[in-house]
Design brief:
With 232 residues, this protein is of the alpha/beta class. The protein has helices spanning 18-28, 45-50, 67-76, 97-102, 126-142, 173-184, 210-229; strands spanning 5-11, 32-38, 57-61, 82-85, 109-113, 120-121, 154-157, 189-193, 195-196.
Length: 232
């Protein structure tokens, strides 16, 4: 019997790309459910996805915002033997999901990685600099076994949750702590190289300017340190 797959999407103002992303996931993965959590988009994202007639699409809309809590809400409402996460504006990467899922026969968690051999990052300016700096800090403090702590594009066997559960606050930094704790619990992690495409919207919602970058950096660095000292 084929494993059931759950793919979680978090959206905020993704009206221009979300239909294509959903279409590509359904195209490349059999026996899949998509759990979409929209954080009060103002551009009609949720209205668009509500028009998609597919019983394997679960939709949630909320007033609050936050990547970690959106993932947790999706996780709670998922039923798959395999759970995955992909950026909602990266429809081109959906084709990689079947290969990632196949690797779960011998690994527990598979990440698309920009920092293993063959990986690249085609974004520009502050986006690529921020990722490189944060990952250098992560490898220095948390260990070099994981190369890309901030990819956020992954699939995992549901059994991983018996060992480690993501803490549902913060933005992308929640994934750093989750990966570190998973490695500490001997979860078998595999990184597969990929090329991070340029942002379709041309601007990052995470760090659109230097002020926001510095502001978020504080939370990332704090979370990295907490990963070391927080008790299970």
């Amino acid at each position: 019997m084929d494993k059931k797959i759950s793919i979680i999407l978090s959206t905020y103002n993704e009206a221009s790309v979300i239909e294509q992303t959903i279409s590509q996931i359904f195209k490349y993965i059999k026996n899949v459910e998509i759990i979409l959590v929209d954080d009060n988009s103002s551009d009609g994202t949720f209205e668009k996805v509500k028009k998609i007639d597919n019983p394997n699409l679960k939709l949630f809309s909320r007033k609050s915002r936050g990547l970690a809590s959106a993932f947790s809400l999706g996780l709670i409402n998922s039923t798959g033997d395999v759970v995955g996460w992909i950026d909602s504006n990266m429809d081109l990467l959906a084709v990689k999901l079947p290969n990632m899922i196949s690797k779960l026969d011998n690994h527990d968690l598979v990440i698309l990685s920009r920092y293993v051999e063959g990986g690249k990052d085609e974004r520009k300016g502050l986006r690529i600099a921020a990722s490189q700096i944060v990952n250098l800090i992560c490898r220095f403090i948390l260990g070099r076994k994981i190369k890309d702590y901030t990819s956020g594009i992954f699939v995992m066997n549901r059994s991983v949750l018996n060992k480690v559960v993501p803490i549902s606050y913060g933005h992308g930094e929640f994934f750093i702590e989750f990966l570190y704790k998973a490695k500490q619990k001997d979860v078998k992690i595999l990184e597969i190289p990929f090329t991070q495409p340029a942002d379709k919207e041309g601007i990052s919602k995470t760090a659109p300017n230097m002020f926001k970058f510095i502001y978020l950096s504080f939370f990332y660095i704090t979370r990295i340190i907490l990963s070391l000292v927080r008790r299970d």
